[in-house]
From TrEMBL, chains A, B:
Pfam families assigned to the protein according to its UniProt record, in alphabetical order: HTH_IclR, IclR_C
Domain named IclR-ED: residues: 66-248
Protein name: DNA-binding IclR family transcriptional regulator
Alphabetized Gene3D superfamilies for the sequence: 3.30.450.40, Winged helix-like DNA-binding domain superfamily/Winged helix DNA-binding domain (1.10.10.10)
SMART domains per UniProt: HTH_ICLR
Lineage of producing organism: Archaea, Methanobacteriati, Methanobacteriota, Stenosarchaea group, Halobacteria
Amino acid sequence: MTTPTMQSVERVFEVVDVLWREDGAGPAAVAEALDIHRSTAHGYLRSLEAVGYAVNDGGTYELSYRFLDMGTRLQYRNRVFQAAREEISRLSRETGELPTLAVEEAGGAVILHQRPGENALELGTYSGMRTPLHTTASGKTILAHMPAERVDAVLDGGLERVTDRTVTDPERLRERLASIREDGHAVDVDQQVVGMGTVAVPLHPDDDHVASLAIACPSERIRNESYQDELVGALKESRNRISIKYQYGR
Amino acid sequence: MTTPTMQSVERVFEVVDVLWREDGAGPAAVAEALDIHRSTAHGYLRSLEAVGYAVNDGGTYELSYRFLDMGTRLQYRNRVFQAAREEISRLSRETGELPTLAVEEAGGAVILHQRPGENALELGTYSGMRTPLHTTASGKTILAHMPAERVDAVLDGGLERVTDRTVTDPERLRERLASIREDGHAVDVDQQVVGMGTVAVPLHPDDDHVASLAIACPSERIRNESYQDELVGALKESRNRISIKYQYGR
DNA sequence: CCGAGACGTTTCTCATTACCAAACGGATAC
DNA sequence: GTATCCGTTTGGTAATGAGAAACGTCTCGG
C-alpha cells in the first residue's frame, strides 16, 4: 500500500487528460498544463504516438480512436454484454425507450451498453460512463444484490449527494435496497434527472458479477401504471432470456 | 524523428496489451510476458490502477472500463458522429441492415459508429475497429475523396492483401477510386467478406475531414438491383440531412 | 499436519533513464 | 526585417525506475 506509483505512468495519463480537455495540443500547451518542460512534454507525446494512442497532425497531437477500439473490445468481451446485447436491441425496438445495461466496477456503476429506441430520451449518458452506485435505479439494483461485505464497503465510502433527491442516509438506503430485493425491481421517478423515470431489474449471472438491466423514459410516461408494469414485464422477460443465454453459452 | 520514445510509456502500454490478451493478470504473469522483474511489473500495475485504467481484483489486475469511457467520449465529441447519429438510427430501423460510419485516422479507416438493424448481418466489426483504407467499400469511398497528396502517401505505404480479392495494384485502385467519384457511391459484393455486400457514400463535411456512410447486408439481398438502388437512395438522403446538420449546428 | 513452492507485496540500492536547459529551423506577426 | 512563438533535437545531470532479496499468505502434496 505504501509502494509509490510511477511518475512516468501517472504523467502519461495526465498528458492523455490534457489532450482530452484541450481536444488536441502541442508540446507547449501540454508543458504549460502540467508544469513540465516543453521537451519533456514532447517526449510523452511522441511516445503516445508511437504506441498508437495519439496521432500527430502537423505538430498538434490528438487522442486516437485506439481508446475506442480497446474500450469496445473490453465491452464485447464481457459475458453479460454478450448475453444481453440482442435483448437490449429488442427492448429498444419494442419499447422505443432507452434500455441500458450497467455493471459494477470498483465500487461504482458503469454503463456497459445502451441503445436508444425511436422515442428515447436524450440523456447525456454513454457507454463507459461511471456513476456512484447509490444515485441511479441501475446502481441501487446492483447494490441490492451485492454481497453484504461489499455493500458495507460502498456505504462506508460515503454517499455523495448529486441531486437534492439523492438518498445519502445509509439506513434509508438499506431500506430502499431491501424493498428492491422484495419487489424484484427498482423504480425511480425524477430522482436522478427531472423528467426522467427509470425501471431496473437485477442480472446476477454468477455470484461474483452483478449487473442490471434498465429502461429510462420520460416521467410522464412512466407515471402511467399500466405502462410501467409493461416495462417491468418486458425487462423481466429479457432478464430470463439473458440468464438462459448466459448459462448455456452463446 | 530521432528522438527516442520513453521506455516507461511504451512499457505501460505493453502491460495494457498483456492485460488485454490474458484477460487480466498479476505481476508474475506480466513479468514473464515482458521479461521484466516481478516487482517492476507490480509497479506498472499499481500505477495503472492509480490512474484508473486498471482495477485490482484481489491480486489480479484487469483493464478498467475507463478505456470505454474515454473512447466513447472521443466518439461523441466527433462532429461527424454528432451529425450522423440520428440518421444511422433511422437507417438501421428503416433498412433493418447494418449502417456504419467510418472516418479516416492516420492513414487508415476507423469505424466510428454502427447500429445493427433487425435483420442485420453479424460481422465481427465494432466501433473503434481499424481497417486499411483500400480493403473496404467505406475505406475506398474515403480514399476517393481525400486530397491527392494524402492518397499518394497511402498508396506509397503499400497495399496489403487481406483477401484474395483485395485490390493491391495502385493503378487499378486509382481507377476504382475514379469510378467511385463518378458514381457518387461505392458497391462491394463478396469483396471483404464472402456473403457480405456493402454500399457506401462519402461524407466530406469540410476539406480536412473525410468520412463515409455505408450499409452492409447479405450478398443475396444486395444483388437485387432495385434493393441496391433503394439502399443507395437511403444513404444519399441521409448524407444530405447529415450535411445540413453538420453545417448548421445541432 | 507440515513443508515446498508460487504469488502479491514491500524495501533497498544502484544504474538507467527521464528530466531540464540550451539551441536549431521554420512559421507567423508586428 | 526582426522578434517571438512553436515543434523538434541534442547533451549533461539528477531523479527515478529497475532488479535483488525478503516477508506474509495461500495452495498444494506428501
